[in-house]
Amino acid sequence: MTKDRLIAFTDAVIAIVMTILVLGLKEPSDATWQALAVLLPNYFTYALSFFWIGTMWVNLHNTFQRVHLISHKTVWCSLVLLFFSSFFPYAVNFASGHFTAVVAQEFYGIIVILITLSNFLLYYLASKDNDDASIFGMRYKRIADFCLKIVGLSFGLIYPPAVMIGVLLAGILFIPPHDFWQRLLKESK
C-alpha cells in the first residue's frame, strides 16, 4: 500500500469519527438558557474530544510528511489506531451522558489510552520503516502525555471528571507544533 492511500484512508475515518461526535450531542429539553446549562458537561466532553482527535490528526499529518516508506506492520498498526478511534464517539456519548459516573469516565479514559498507545506504536514503526528517529521523536513529551492520562485515569476512580482533565492537560502538550518543542529544548540546553 502506498503512503498516500494510507493517509487518505486515515483522513476519511478520522473525519467520520469527528462528524459522529457532533451527532451524539443532545438537544436541550426546552429552548431556555437553563436547559442549555444542564448540557454543559455534554458540550465540554464534545469540545475536548473533538479537539483531542483533531490534534491527533494534525500531528499524524505533520509526521507523515517526513515518512517516505511504510511497512505492512505500519499499515496494520494504523488500522488498529483507527479501530480504537472508531470507538471514541461511543465512549464520548457514554461519558457525556454520565459525566460523574466512574465507569463511564474510566471507559472513556481506557479508549483514550488505547488510541494513544496505538498512536505511539504507529510513530515508532514509521520511524523504523524510514530509519529516522525524529519521526518518533519528542520522547519526553510522549511520556508526559501518557503519564497525565494515567494520572487522570487513576484519580478518575475518586473524582470521575479527572479522566477528562488528564486528557485536556495531555492534549495541551500537543497543540504547539513539534518544531516549537524542539526549539524550546535546544534553547534550554
Architecture overview:
There is one protein chain. This protein has helices spanning 3-23, 33-38, 40-64, 72-97, 102-129, 133-136, 139-155, 162-173, 178-188. It has 189 residues and is an all-alpha fold. The mean pLDDT is 89. Helices cover 79% and strands 0% of the residues. Helix 3 (40-64) packs antiparallel against helix 4 and helix 5 (102-129) packs parallel to helix 8. The N and C termini lie far apart (41 Å). It has nine helices and no strands. The chain has one domain.
Which SSEs are present, and which pair or pack?
Layout: H1 3-23, H2 33-38, H3 40-64, H4 72-97, H5 102-129, H6 133-136, H7 139-155, H8 162-173, H9 178-188
Keywords:
189 residues; mainly alpha; 79% helix; globular
- Strand-residue fraction? under 5%
Number of helices: 9
Structural class given helices, strands, pairing?
A: mainly alpha
Count the domains: 1
List the uncertain runs. Answer: none
- SSE ordering: HHHHHHHHH
Report Rg: 18 Å
**Residue-averaged pLDDT:** 89
Number of strands: 0
Largest sheet: none
The percent range for helix content is over 70%
Quick structural summary:
This protein is mostly helical and 189 residues long. The protein has nine helices and no strands.
